Prior knowledge:
TIM Barrel; 8 strands; globular; 10 helices; alpha/beta
Amino acid sequence: MRFAINHISAPNLPLAEFFAMCRRIGVSEVEIRNDIPDVLGGMTPQAVRAEACAQGITILSINAVYPFNLWSGDMPDRARRMADYASECGAQALVMCPLNDGSKVPHSAVVAALDGIRPILIEHGLTGLVEPLGFPISSLRTKAEALAAMTESDENGVFKLTHDTFHHHLAGETQLYPHRTGLVHISGVTDPTLAVEDMLDAHRVLVDGADRLGNRAQIRALLAGGYDGPFSFEPFAEDIHALADPEGALRASMAFVAAQIEPRTEDG
Length: 268
């Protein structure tokens, strides 16, 4: 398996320092963001490309187009501007997240939104990474729903799924789609008092032995099913963001996950 790092893992590091940290721990693929930290609002795409090239970094994606499934108002313009930025900075894809406020969005509207963004992605040579959110208030909770809309809209492989181990667990999904998956986000929840329906982004930490999300089983199943893409760390908990040594914490979590995934011997 190969690891990637989402900038949310160490949001207090400026981009150049974040890239350098990733290289020190053996990671060359990253995700940048338009929220925490807002790379898009603070750097030109040309500067991002130059820094990535200088440090041997591949930018997998910009996270995220939100809410992609409401293709109205300023959403088309925002999506195009993000696609422009992605193309200019050298990113390969845009992560696309659905409305998450308790409102319902019908299947037909999801398909229409995908139909709207598809030509923008094609024009810019980008992949659209559709990420269902498993929260009870999400308008698109499952990969099965997302895949149905993607299949209806897309005949050219422009869209792929983002499998998020946190959201997979929250949605209660069991079905995996390794051959339709373009990116995997990994994080853990360790608080033993939380009910699944009460889990929030703020509870997402780095994966360790206390993980409740079944990361090991999910990752092993995806690999066994033929997924050969990156596994990107995406913790949102403030105590992770405040770590004095995010590099050490990421290194430890990478080692833990890798050890869990490696085939066990008869004695192990």
